[in-house]
Amino acid sequence: MNSEGELCLVPGVMGLRDVLTFSSPGVSQFEKGDYPWLSRVRVQVQGGGGGSGGADSEAGEAIFRPGGAGGGWSSSLLDVSLLGAVETIVVGAGGAAGSGNQPGIAGGASSFGGLVVANGGDGGTASMTSGTGMTTASGIPGPFGGTGKLAMGGGAGEGALRLSGSSGRAGMGGASHLGHGGYGRATHGPGTASRGWGGGAGGSVSIGGEAQPGSDGGFGVVVIELYG
């Protein structure tokens, strides 16, 4: 309040004014000129999760697939002076499911310009061959941390186990900072969906010669908190 009784809002002391959420995969733009009162932003970016592979066993045999890895997450608190007039926002898609005996696809990276970047999680493999004997398929390492004041990788996709031609367990999808991986199924069926943002897909199971697809990984997200 000034001497004439007028309310004066001074940049830098107004606190949180707005929150922007970009949750659809693709490219958008942030223009700081749209917010003349802006003093700083807190940006969170979550990479997409990896999809899981498909499974197509032979009659009387079985295949169990690992889960996809979860996407990485990064966050920074940035002064408005560090931002360009326009910053490009990328929301990473979840990795696509594999079909037949094809692996899952890696999730896409998410970013806010080059200032805050989070990597996507790798897709689940399709290395286990059809059979009846006990065997395993290794899990999928999570991605490394990206760019930001806080940057962390995603969770690993769990490995798979076959005990016989009719029993075993597929791998759980890797967790992300903002989501959970799909569960690890033990029965015949497709890969399992993640929850939230950036989780890896759970693995598929094929028993007795019927093909089952994997599942897509979870979408990424970009969240921008605007402070005046």
Radius of gyration: 22 Å
Number of DSSP strand runs: 16
Overall morphology: elongated
From the helix content, strand content and strand pairing, which structural class follows?
A: mainly beta
Give the H and E element order. EEEEEEEEEEEEEEEE
What's the tally of helices? 0
The N- and C-terminal alpha carbons lie at a distance of: 17 Å
List unreliable stretches of 5+ residues: none
Give the overall pLDDT as a whole number: 96
Largest sheet: 5 strands, antiparallel
Percent range of helical residues: under 10%
Strand proportion, as a percent range, falls in 25-35%
In the residues, how many domains can be counted?
1
Strand order of the biggest β-sheet: 1-16-3-5-10
Outline the fold blueprint:
Layout: E1 16-22, E2 26-31, E3 40-46, E4 62-64, E5 73-79, E6 86-91, E7 110-112, E8 116-118, E9 135-137, E10 150-152, E11 160-162, E12 168-169, E13 179-180, E14 195-196, E15 205-207, E16 221-227
Antiparallel strand pairs: 1-16, 2-6, 3-5, 3-16, 4-15, 5-10, 6-7, 7-8, 9-11, 11-12, 13-14
